[in-house]
Design goal:
- There is one protein chain.
- The chain is mainly beta and about 750 residues long.
- Helix content is about 10%, strand content about 30%.
- Helix 5 crosses helix 7.
Length: about 750
């Protein structure tokens, strides 16, 4: 089935809320859209376990009291995708009689039928003016406000990813309009070198057949306006870059004329130089703009020389914004209802269950400890940054390499079908936009199908991924009768080490791959200050991310020239717009995960998982408590619901050269993984044979334990599949036993023998 083929519609309920975690007593707004459903019932539940399958406890939830537990009216709302800049100028730009507009642009899908680059265009009334792309040619568009629309196109056909400079004019006195299109060659990214074809030509002239009507909509860059009051979405969204926009209030400005508006897309009025939603007008007239749906900023412009990769150091070369017709940072649905969080509610993993007949969905909610409340000794840190990175990750049905990547035929679930039908909910950071550029932003304020507790990952055999996998830890903690609090990445990014300080033990989720600088600093400070961490996953603390300072529900990632990655940022665009720092891998900044956890990412594979064998260090007296009740020759984890073993999916290894503490104990290592597991790309400098699971000794998963000089301690499993082995045989197995032994000793607060 190709990704573009239509899928038969089915009744569906989708929902989102403003953030991942809420304190008791805090109001939780819920936004809902329904398809083919007019009434649905909401129910607050406490989640225990999500995955349903062989050797699984099954789906476990408990209903909780709430004022939201009732029937609600359903309604459909569009997702409002597509980015643009809007200028709330009180109608001055929209009401221009004569004008000259200058700008540069680089289209990425020029053949898309209709794209509005900029102007004041009301599509509902066909009023105003705009510069557009129509079937691959640059055009001027005018409307009389009564339904008549006139457009005039210039030659030649626009080439994808080539830079052009545009000068467009309109003279109301004569009805004459001109359009001049010239290729630019200043940038090292230009497709045409100086002296090549596409010589500069004369402006094309047109006569507009009617006086254009004033459009009662804001001036926009990157889209036109629907013209519907209260409807935020644009029309004719543009794919590509725009920069250097000037507007003059006359059709023939003098050479020394000052522009009415001049937007500098590289200008930041923040002290850290970050480029957020504010778009600065440097004309002095105050026509400042605002980005809608987070187009990509800190991108190279038409004159980038390639000499400076940091947008803060050469802002004049980064005067562009990259717009996409499928950008989405907020679905902007109306609030359907709210959920009360009673003050006495204990911390945990809740959800709002939405049900209509056979149709059901869950919207997860984390209840974090309230201000001033008593803390338990144990905290589970949910990797919500990674939930965002993988949010709505789709199975690419038309990608020939899918089966080669995962080593088996993918299993299609109802969630995959929903994502095929609803790609306009915004893609994951593992996907590309409709124009082929990588997705760098991900947002919480949209439906995230992959957060459903029953979600099954397409890449694994009987597999589950992210949030459903972390529910395995939740149910195991309940089975162990351990009282615990739940906190999230977004909490840790905001509050730092103070959030962790009350806890004796912090447990990670199964795949905490994406973390910010405040999170990494907090975890390191916690361990150095005596905290104890159980890293219960694989490929953790790998990619650098940053959260939007003004919209913390938006996360940014830039993938550069290393790391196992689905796409790579263009040259010159490796720095994060939201904080000005270099993106990519933490190890590229001298902070590999081995320094913190003793292990770091080494390989991935999705066909089957393997067990562990004890290593000589496991018989060290300091590690004796870990293996209480485990035989000397006992195979560890030759079972589990992720590929049939405890070591698998994505795995980490002990490596002294990358920062594993010299006195760390390597207590167990996996048996050989399959040849579907390959060494991580950042450590491969050539491509010789012998890099697969049965051949390369570095393709393995390691269990590591060590203590910090400050009294802290770390136990690491180095495998995403580890949590999937906890529930085997009703939690009576050696994976659960080892994990429980460590948790009880760490939580006791007793000194560790080191």
């Amino acid at each position: 089935m190709a990704a573009s083929e239509p899928v038969e519609p089915a009744p569906a309920i989708f929902a989102y809320t403003s953030k991942f975690s809420f304190a008791p007593g805090e109001r939780v707004p819920i936004h809902v859209s329904c398809e083919q459903i007019t009434r649905y019932t909401a129910q607050l539940v406490r989640l225990r376990h999500g995955y349903e399958g062989p050797e699984s406890p099954g789906f476990l939830e408990t209903e909780l009291p709430s004022t939201a537990n009732r029937e609600h009216a359903g309604g459909f709302h569009p997702p409002n995708t597509g980015s643009y800049v809007t200028v709330p100028d009180a109608g001055i730009l929209s009401a221009l009689i004569s004008w000259t507009i200058e700008f540069t642009f680089q289209a990425t899908t020029p053949d898309k039928p209709l794209q509005y680059l900029l102007g004041a265009w009301d599509d509902s009334r066909h009023a105003g003016y705009a510069v557009a792309l129509e079937d691959g040619r640059l055009a001027l568009v005018f409307g009389d406000g009564e339904g008549a629309r006139a457009s005039f196109a210039a030659d030649p056909q626009i080439e994808a990813r080539s830079w052009y400079r545009v000068v467009a004019t309109f003279d109301a006195a004569t009805g004459d309009s001109t359009l001049r299109l010239d290729p630019t060659t200043e940038s090292v990214n230009a497709h045409r070198l100086p002296g090549a074809s596409h010589a500069r030509g004369d402006a094309k002239r047109f006569r507009v057949p009617f006086p254009p009507a004033i459009a009662a909509v804001p001036f926009r860059i990157g889209a036109g306006s629907s013209g519907n009051v209260g409807v935020p979405e644009g029309v004719g969204h543009y794919n590509g870059k725009i920069g250097n926009v000037l507007v003059f209030p006359t059709a023939a400005p003098a050479a020394d004329a000052m522009p009415l508006a001049a937007w500098d897309f590289a200008r930041s009025e923040r002290g850290d130089g970050s480029l957020l939603d504010a778009v600065v007008d440097v004309s002095g007239n105050g026509f400042h703009g605002v980005c809608v749906n987070s187009p990509t900023r800190a991108v190279t412009g038409h004159n980038w020389t390639g000499r400076e990769p940091n947008f803060r150091h050469a802002p004049n070369e980064y005067g562009a914004i990259h717009f996409h017709d499928d950008d989405l940072d907020d679905a902007r649905w109306p609030e359907a209802f709210d959920v009360d969080q009673p003050h006495e509610l204990e911390s945990g993993k809740n959800a709002v269950r939405l049900r209509a007949g056979e149709t059901e969905s869950h919207l997860p909610l984390v209840v974090r400890p309230g201000p001033g409340s008593k803390r338990n000794a144990v905290a589970l840190l949910l990797p919500t940054g990674s939930y965002l990175a993988y949010a709505n990750d789709r199975l690419q049905f038309d990608t020939a390499g899918t089966e080669l990547l995962i080593g088996h035929t993918p299993v299609v679930s109802r969630h995959d079908l929903e994502l095929q039908r609803h790609y306009d909910f915004g893609g994951s950071n593992y996907e590309v936009h409709s124009d082929g550029s990588g997705v760098v932003y991900s947002s919480r304020r949209r439906p995230i199908v992959t957060l459903d507790p029953r979600y099954r990952a397409w890449m694994g055999v009987n597999s589950f991924w992210q949030f459903p996998a972390d529910l395995c830890i939740v149910d195991w903690l309940h089975a162990e009768q351990v009282a615990f609090d739940v906190i999230t990445d977004e909490d840790l990014d905001r509050e730092g080490v103070e959030l962790l300080a009350p806890y004796r033990v912090v447990l990670t989720g199964s795949h905490p791959e994406y973390v910010s600088l405040p999170e990494l600093d907090a975890m390191e400070a916690y361990v150095a200050g005596g905290g104890r961490v159980m890293y219960l996953g694989g490929n953790g603390f790998y990619w650098i991310v940053s959260y939007h300072p003004e919209k913390p529900h938006v996360m940014e990632i830039r993938r550069s020239e290393s790391g196992t990655r689905p796409h790579q940022a263009p040259a010159g665009e490796y720095y994060l717009a939201t904080n000005g720092e270099l993106g990519a891998l933490w190890r590229n900044k001298g902070r590999p995960p081995q320094r913190l956890f003793g292990v770091g990412f080494t390989a991935q594979g999705f066909d089957r998982s393997s067990p562990y064998l004890r290593m000589p260090d496991s018989f060290d007296a300091r590690a004796a408590f870990i293996f209480e009740g485990v035989g000397d020759d006992e195979v560890i984890g030759d079972f589990g619901i992720v590929g049939g073993g405890a070591a698998g999916a994505e795995v980490d290894r002990y490596d002294l050269a990358l920062g594993t503490p010299p006195d760390a104990l390597l207590v167990a290592t996996s048996t050989p993984l399959s040849d579907n597991y390959n060494h991580c790309s950042e450590e491969i400098f050539e491509t010789p044979p012998g890099l697969r699971g049965s051949e390369d000794p570095d393709v393995r998963s390691d269990l590591v334990y060590f203590c910090h000089a400050g009294g802290g301690a770390v136990f690491s499993t180095g495998s995403i599949a580890w949590t999937g082995s906890l529930s085997h045989n009703g939690y009576d197995n050696n994976v659960a036993r080892i994990t429980g032994n460590v948790l009880r000793r760490f939580a006791s607060g007793e000194p560790l023998d080191w």
